[in-house]
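Severity: low
Component: inverse-folding endpoint
Summary: output formatting inconsistent between runs
Steps to reproduce: submit the following structure tokens with default settings.
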């Protein structure tokens, strides 16, 4: 006998002032106990709005929502008592310690006495936060912050757990641990709603609700959506590593191709219905290339339902001037070290990056990637070592070097209380643009990044996808020689990620040198070389294929590792070596 639905959503609509389309439009669905319901869709699709309506933090304009028979309008306090909510933005108190945050949430949930002690013991063990009890929440890594958020959401033993993009900015190891913890909660009958921009996570959910522009496009098991692209997914084999990006961009511009990505040693392509794959001599001239049928992914179906990806042409790159060739590295780090008191965030990091190369910096949360970035940009002075950009020492020629650099920070770093137009004007002036040239560049950025409707909105209030577009526009409008991108696509939907990488690839073809960090391992496949950073040290460097081969050497069970497999294997091998040497 089927269990009664945990949540019933009947004809729910919600519209916000000044928006052209409803945030939600006549949504009908249910959420079941003991299952993970994935909530997916592009930025602004209505995912967060739906979660807030379920919790009673907002009220629908039309329709009704009940949680265990309780009305989201009339019984909000009772609903709060049986739900746990982990918001998209870190919602805990950063100036309180781990244990102080737990005490605060226990107070709010009226958990006292012996029961409080037992729950703390269980939750700290469950999330592996026992050793971090005295640490301030603001000093935790991204993965540990999410674990603390999960622990606080679970204090009241909720029947319904609502997780709004819990894995944004979280490295693959922490993400896997977070997913495993949530899976364990299902045994007790808890219902989980997991909003996500990571579609490999959505594929693991029991059921998926796909939203776009407030409308429900799919509601059911992920496998049902895969049927829509059966027989339309291919790989191009036999393309040389140095040509994969170019082959992908050319393929994406062919008639009938609706999506494509680099997948390991191959180029993955999704064709439209009843469309023939393009001729290989057109998309991969001079290559010993072959077409191969492959099984569809959930992401293939997602892009197909939404009408296809952004294509392979970058208008941004088209309007950039070609950068001159350079016979020596454009970016150099020699023995780069940064200490904060007794803590060494980066130790003896050495690498160089050449003109028109994409260099990826990967590593778990807290590994030292952002610290390395800030030293390379001149925002932090190294304790030891040296960083140069286009031959300029960032210690002695900071301002001159910065004029050749574009920087997009991990956290949104524009002025949230200025509107989008004001941010574009401010940053273009900061980079030395003025007069007609400044106006023309701003107009071009508005057109390329589709910012016209967002210009009067404060930057801090923009949807995440438009925040990232605005941040990238501000970073590139002066046509820098070098572009530093610190997790540029964290939390944005797959279509926006593809748009970003089309621009990045196009700029690299014009000779721009790019250094990027990312937790999306599929994005890291676009890199020419990768440095894997762990505990502040570079533990592996090479092409994506090189890292996979290194992973096979340290883990004999990996026959055909993905880049995610390699990431995990190499980090675990580093831990094992440290343990063998007795290093803390």
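Observed output (run 2 of 3):
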């Amino acid at each position: 006998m089927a269990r009664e639905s945990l949540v019933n959503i009947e004809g729910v609509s919600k519209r916000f002032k000044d928006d052209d389309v409803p945030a939600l439009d006549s949504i009908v669905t249910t959420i079941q106990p003991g299952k993970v319901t994935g909530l997916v869709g592009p930025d602004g699709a209505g995912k967060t709005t739906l979660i807030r309506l379920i919790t009673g933090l907002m009220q629908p304009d039309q329709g009704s929502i009940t949680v265990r028979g309780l009305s989201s309008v009339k019984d909000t306090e009772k609903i709060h008592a049986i739900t746990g909510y982990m918001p998209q933005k870190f919602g805990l108190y950063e100036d309180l310690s781990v244990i102080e945050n737990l005490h605060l949430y226990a107070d709010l949930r009226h958990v006292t006495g012996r029961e409080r002690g037992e729950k703390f013991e269980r939750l700290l063990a469950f999330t592996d936060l026992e050793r971090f009890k005295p640490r301030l929440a603001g000093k935790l890594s991204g993965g540990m912050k999410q674990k603390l958020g999960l622990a606080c959401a679970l204090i009241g033993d909720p029947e319904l757990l609502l997780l709004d993009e819990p894995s944004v900015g979280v490295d693959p190891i922490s993400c896997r641990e977070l997913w495993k913890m949530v899976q364990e909660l299902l045994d007790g009958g808890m219902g989980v709603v997991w909003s996500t921009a990571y579609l490999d996570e959505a594929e693991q959910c029991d059921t998926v609700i796909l939203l776009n522009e407030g409308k429900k496009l799919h509601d059911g098991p992920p496998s049902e959506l895969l049927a829509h692209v059966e027989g339309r997914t291919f790989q191009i084999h036999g393309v040389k590593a140095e040509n994969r990006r170019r082959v992908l961009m050319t393929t994406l511009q062919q008639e009938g191709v609706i999506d494509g990505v680099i997948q390991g040693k191959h180029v993955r392509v999704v064709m439209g219905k009843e469309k023939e794959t393009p001729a290989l001599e057109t998309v991969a001239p001079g290559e010993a290339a072959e077409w191969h049928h492959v099984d569809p992914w959930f992401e293939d179906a997602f892009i197909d339902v939404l009408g296809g990806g952004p294509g392979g042409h970058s208008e941004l790159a088209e309007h950039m001037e070609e950068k001159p060739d350079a016979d020596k590295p454009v970016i150099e780090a020699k023995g780069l070290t940064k200490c904060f008191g007794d803590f060494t965030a980066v130790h003896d990091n050495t690498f160089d990056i050449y003109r028109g190369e994409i260099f990826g910096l990967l590593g778990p949360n807290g590994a030292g990637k952002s610290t390395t970035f800030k030293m390379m940009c001149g925002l932090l002075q190294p304790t030891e070592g040296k960083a140069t950009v286009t031959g300029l020492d960032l210690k002695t020629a900071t301002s001159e070097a910065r004029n050749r650099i574009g920087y997009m920070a991990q956290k949104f770093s524009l002025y949230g209380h200025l509107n989008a137009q004001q941010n574009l004007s401010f940053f273009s002036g900061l980079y030395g643009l003025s007069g007609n040239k400044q106006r023309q560049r701003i107009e071009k950025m508005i057109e390329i990044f589709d910012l016209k409707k967002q210009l009067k909105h404060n930057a801090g209030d923009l949807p995440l996808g438009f925040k990232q577009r605005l941040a990238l526009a501000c970073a590139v409008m002066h046509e820098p020689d070098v572009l530093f991108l610190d997790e540029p696509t964290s939390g944005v939907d797959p279509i926006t990620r593809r748009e970003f990488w089309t621009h990045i690839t196009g700029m690299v073809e014009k000779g721009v040198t790019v250094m990027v960090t990312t937790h999306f391992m599929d994005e890291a496949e676009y890199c020419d070389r990768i440095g894997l950073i762990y505990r502040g040290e570079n533990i592996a460097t090479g092409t994506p294929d090189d890292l996979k081969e290194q992973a096979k050497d340290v883990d004999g069970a990996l026959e055909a590792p993905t880049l995610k497999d390699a990431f995990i294997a190499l980090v675990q091998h580093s831990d094992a070596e440290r343990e063998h040497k007795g290093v803390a």
